[in-house]
Amino acid sequence: MRRPTILILALVAAATSVALATAAPPAHRHDMAAMGGTTSQALASQLADARVATAKYATNLALAKKQGYGVITQMIPDMGWHFMNPKITGFDVEKPAILVYGKRGARWQLVAFEWVFPKKPAKAPLPGATYGSFGAACHYKDGTFVFQADQNACAAKSPQSGSAFNFWHPDLVTLHVWAWYPNPAGVFSGMNPLMRPFNKG
Questions:
Q1: Residue 20 burial (10 A CB sphere; 0-12, 13-18, 19+)
Q2: Is this prediction's pTM over 0.90?
Q3: Tens digits of residue pLDDT in 36-46
Q4: Distance separating alpha carbons of residues 56 and 66, to the nearest angstrom
Q5: Are the CB atoms for 143 and 160 separated by under 8 Å?
Q6: What DSSP string describes 9-31?
Q7: Over pLDDT 90: what percentage of the chain?
Q8: Which long-range contacts does 162-167 make (Cβ < 8 Å, 24+ apart)?
């Protein structure tokens, strides 16, 4: 029933993240003010490289899935759907472990990237980076999840949908980057008010 080892290590050691609209409290909390409209040249250059490297996924979720990205959260209000590739480890801005999408009808649009860490990095992986957090949780194959501090307490099936158990992770530090969609709250902000039209799918 449980497959913690590979997925959890990939999630914690590398980059990954998660959250869902049915969660009562906001999944991501940020410890610093958003960058607003200011962006360093170094960051702008890195985000340009990231956009070129991920352009193939911009409106092609099918390709992302074919290349290893699987759903880990459904729509998080003002954020998006999260798809993770557990084979991507370490931080590489051109190879994000998580792709965040908005969905309107049958169309998908890449809006952001996300990485997670077991603790706040000693050195910011991107200039001016700010962080959020995501509590320990049980995740299921359809992207539903339940916050749960104890992995052994994860149900074999999602209480929300009946989907099979996928993986569990401990408390994580998150790094969200809005590389594909404007965010007036800042490039590193977890939430984006301009994503509200996507909340209803």
A1: buried
A2: no
A3: 344 589 999 99
A4: 12
A5: no
A6: HHHHHS------TT-SS-S---S
A7: 75
A8: 164/140, 165/1, 165/2, 165/3, 165/138, 165/139, 165/140, 165/141, 166/3, 166/7, 166/72, 166/139, 166/140, 166/141, 167/3, 167/4, 167/7, 167/8, 167/11, 167/139
